[in-house]
Amino acid sequence: MDTPLFQQTLDRSRPHELQMDGIDPFRSGQLKYRYLDSGELVVVPNLWYNQTPDMRAQSYEAQAVQLDQLADAMSRRASYLMLPQEMRELLAHYKQQAVAFRAQAARFRGEQLRQIECNTAAVAKHDNGRQASRPLGGKSATRSAVAAVSY
pLDDT category, 89, cuts 50, 70, 90? Predict the structure, then answer.
């Protein structure tokens, strides 16, 4: 088993994939990635700038659901702390924010597809420089990059 190297930030210029091995990345304090060009394992803090686009998209979608639930709960019962006009404005704001979070999630989903294409191209370029008979982790690096659909 490789001992992962700790880094503060993931090098996104290199092709990589998330390697959490059955651990829920949303509940973990650290994320483990494998660089596909060298096979090197790195561990980074689970902060927004180290997360995969899919993780960020899921986070935005969860926030949108919370805002929808909050707006629904507020609209079903009268508030004694706000004027009716303030309540309508707050509900409209929550709904606008939920739409904005869903749009941001869609942008991250598009970024995820772009990252897969970039990783595949970079690994294929790297494979041309090394012997094709040397598999990386039991698979060719190109197949690994394409199979890393979660990132």
Answer: very high
